[in-house]
Amino acid sequence: MTYLARSLFQEYLIVRDDFSKLKDTYQAGRYVLKYKEQLPPAEYSKLLYSLAVHAHVIREYEDSVNYCRTLLASSEKEALAVRSYVIDVLRSAHFYLGNYELAEKYAEEYRRCVPSIEGDNDRLLTAMINAKRGHIELATEQFERCLQLCSNSFIVYIVNAYVSLCFERDHIDKIKNLLLSYEVTIHDQTYTTPMRRGELAKFYKTKGDYYSQTIDIDRAISEYIEGAYAYACIDDVDNERECLRLIYQVSKKNKLTADVIDRIGDYYNRFTRTGGSS
């Protein structure tokens, strides 16, 4: 049974790298838990952390929280070695569940684990929580500070969150400024993980929303197409369908150019050519 358990675990680690099947491979990882008693402590801890991240990526935040809690309760050295990473996942999962007090609690615990560094995630999470709590001026100041201090690879996270607040406040000119200022930098980055690819997909969809609102219809549809494809490549069917729904909604109300009509028609052929890889 130990051999079977370890074989299933290794298979999961391999198949989870196929981002186009993230929901299916998540179930494969969960299946390994049936044999958790047969796994060495190091491999069981790695399985739990892998599942915590995997669950977060596919927005199964309650699952992610549960895996993290199990790891935090463990005294095994392998679990202790990833404690700070687990808390990082946990604070984010609680934020997306709307548990802002718990998100702040684990953010503070993370700072105790890594006291010498104020990271991009720390600053952004603080701004996002303040935005959710209605502290708009403070959140705006914090978003601006995030943009000043963050690495280029992290800009997409900040811009997506900041633009979301701007849409809520109907600050269209600020959205335009953010997109013009950071679009090139965002597209110059490399996106190798499903979480990062999800942020890029969200950025395409965000641009589509902006251009739809400013009545640049061809550009809006082009961005929604890119967003739908990027979401599909990480098996995010719900958000892919939302982008496709927005394409249909915009298309039926406006006259489209021939080029955009061709791009819409070519959407599904794109998967055949690329194999679902971005």
Q: What's the total count of β strands?
A: 0
- Determine Rg (CA atoms, Å): 20 Å
* Class derived from helix and strand content: mainly alpha
Mean pLDDT: 93
The N- and C-terminal alpha carbons lie at a distance of 39 Å
Q: What helical percentage do the residues reach?
A: over 70%
Protein name: Tetratricopeptide repeat protein
Organism: Paenibacillus arenosi
Quick tags:
16 helices; about 75% helix; mainly alpha; about 0% strand; about 280 residues
Structure described in brief:
Helix content is 77%, strand content 0%. By secondary structure, the protein is mainly alpha-helical. The mean pLDDT is 93.
Describe this structure in words.
This protein is mostly helical. Among the domains are: 85 residues; 89 residues, no CATH class. It is 77% helix and 0% strand. It is built from 16 helices and no strands. α6 packs antiparallel against α7, α8 runs antiparallel to α9 and α10 runs parallel beside α12. It is globular, with a radius of gyration of 20 Å. The two termini are 39 Å apart. The model has no long low-confidence stretch (mean pLDDT 93).
Task: Summarize the topology.
Elements: H1 2-15, H2 22-32, H3 41-57, H4 61-72, H5 77-81, H6 83-96, H7 100-113, H8 120-132, H9 136-149, H10 155-169, H11 172-187, H12 194-213, H13 217-232, H14 237-253, H15 258-265, H16 267-274
Helix pairs in contact: 1-2, 2-3, 3-4, 4-6, 6-7, 7-8, 8-9, 9-10, 10-11, 10-12, 12-13, 13-14
Organism: Paenibacillus arenosi
Protein name: Tetratricopeptide repeat protein
InterPro entries: TPR-like_helical_dom_sf
